[in-house]
């Protein structure tokens, strides 16, 4: 199993970029793969999408000459059996020739219901079973698991490939403790730095100590935009996070972090994200100071998420934004 003992504030966090949209055509990933290859960015991330399969887009980029480290943050468990999930992660690692972070999450209850006969009665149990099976397969083990939610009996044929970290999407303390027990990487989204410091990192440590293993790496996907005279920070936050502001598990996480949002009023929620530092907005030097708080909280990898900029101003603006921020924080 790949394990990590990090969270020292003396170790500088790496910076990565998130694809700010789901590319309907695979060639649309190439400018972002190129930026990852040519800039100080560490890794290119994609989340779950309904327009494309991120594994295939990464393989397309690699075949086009842009072989970079990649991360899946996160793909949703109800869509894919653990064996297929492990096989996809192994295929991406072989195609890119670089380490892969394969992140998974149970998704919202409404999605679970639409894919199964009912939501997971225990998302924690489902996640434990899923990650245990995927990790075992990627470690070359013969997995014999009869779980409450996931049954897996099989073994992956070994292929030459770089390492694969198995990640878990984390919002609240229970999932953070579980990540500490079973994951190589914990992946957060829309989580303010103070919430990571006070809630997520202590829970990760608690889980790791209970399992007698090192604390997983912590990756935080952070929505961000540069300040500008023609820009409305709340509108950018809304464009970036309107879907999340309507999901109960995000509303609950934000409430725990001190940010009050109402699913029926996403515009007010977006303004609260800015005020609560869940959505970062400012000049490059100001953003660098904000990111320092994430590093001090224990984040190992900060992923720049400019989906609001892309949705509002288009792809060229999003690329310029990423270039400008990366130049500031990686110089």
| Tally of DSSP β-strands | 11
SS-based structural class? alpha/beta
**Beta-strand fraction estimate:** 15-25%
Q: What is the average per-residue confidence, as pLDDT, rounded to a whole number?
A: 95
Helix content: 40-55%
Which strand order spans the largest sheet, edge to edge or round the barrel? 1-2-3-4-7-8-9-11
Can you offer a commentary on this structure?
The protein is an alpha/beta fold and 331 residues long. The protein has helices at residues 30-38, 54-63, 82-96, 109-115, 123-138, 173-182, 193-211, 233-241, 248-256, 266-275, 284-297, 307-313, 315-329; strands at 14-18, 44-46, 70-76, 100-105, 143-146, 151-154, 164-169, 185-189, 217-226, 280-282, 301-305. Strands 1-2-3-4-7-8-9-11 form an 8-stranded parallel barrel, surrounded by 9 helices. The protein has a two-stranded antiparallel ribbon with strand order 5-6. Helix 11 (284-297) crosses helix 13 and helix 12 packs antiparallel against helix 13 (315-329).
Write the topology of this structure.
Layout: E1 14-18, H1 30-38, E2 44-46, H2 54-63, E3 70-76, H3 82-96, E4 100-105, H4 109-115, H5 123-138, E5 143-146, E6 151-154, E7 164-169, H6 173-182, E8 185-189, H7 193-211, E9 217-226, H8 233-241, H9 248-256, H10 266-275, E10 280-282, H11 284-297, E11 301-305, H12 307-313, H13 315-329
Parallel strand pairs: 1-2, 1-11, 2-3, 3-4, 4-7, 7-8, 8-9, 9-10, 9-11
Antiparallel strand pairs: 5-6
Helix pairs in contact: 2-3, 3-5, 5-6, 6-7, 7-11, 8-10, 8-12, 11-13, 12-13
């Amino acid at each position: 199993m790949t394990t990590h003992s990090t969270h020292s504030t003396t170790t500088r966090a790496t910076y990565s970029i998130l694809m700010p949209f789901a590319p309907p055509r695979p060639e649309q990933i190439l400018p972002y793969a190129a930026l990852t290859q040519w800039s100080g960015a560490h890794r290119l991330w994609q989340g779950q999408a309904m327009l494309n399969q991120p594994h295939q887009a990464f393989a397309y980029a690699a075949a086009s000459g842009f072989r970079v480290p990649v991360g899946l943050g996160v793909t949703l468990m109800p869509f894919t059996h653990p064996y297929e999930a492990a096989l996809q992660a192994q295929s991406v690692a072989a195609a890119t020739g670089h380490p892969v972070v394969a992140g998974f999450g149970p998704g919202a209850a409404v999605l679970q219901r639409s894919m199964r006969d009912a939501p997971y009665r225990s998302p924690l149990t489902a996640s434990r079973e899923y990650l245990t099976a995927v990790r075992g397969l990627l470690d070359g083990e013969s997995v014999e698991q009869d779980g409450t939610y996931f049954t897996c009996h099989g073994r992956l044929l070994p292929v030459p490939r770089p390492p694969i970290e198995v990640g878990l999407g984390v919002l609240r303390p229970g999932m953070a403790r579980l990540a500490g027990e079973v994951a190589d990487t914990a992946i957060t989204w829309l989580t303010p730095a103070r919430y990571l410091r006070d809630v997520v990192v202590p829970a990760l440590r608690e889980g790791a100590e209970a399992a007698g293993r090192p604390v997983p790496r912590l990756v935080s996907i952070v929505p961000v935009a540069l300040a500008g005279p023609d820009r409305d920070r709340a509108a950018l936050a809304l464009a970036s996070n309107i879907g999340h502001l309507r999901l109960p598990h995000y509303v609950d996480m934000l409430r725990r972090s001190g940010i009050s949002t109402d699913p029926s009023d996403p515009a007010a929620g977006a303004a609260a994200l800015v005020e609560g530092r869940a959505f970062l907005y400012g000049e490059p030097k100001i953003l660098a100071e904000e990111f320092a708080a994430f590093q001090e909280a224990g984040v190992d990898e900060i992923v720049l998420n400019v989906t609001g900029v892309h949705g509002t101003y288009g792809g060229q603006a999003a690329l310029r934004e990423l270039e400008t921020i990366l130049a500031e924080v990686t110089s």
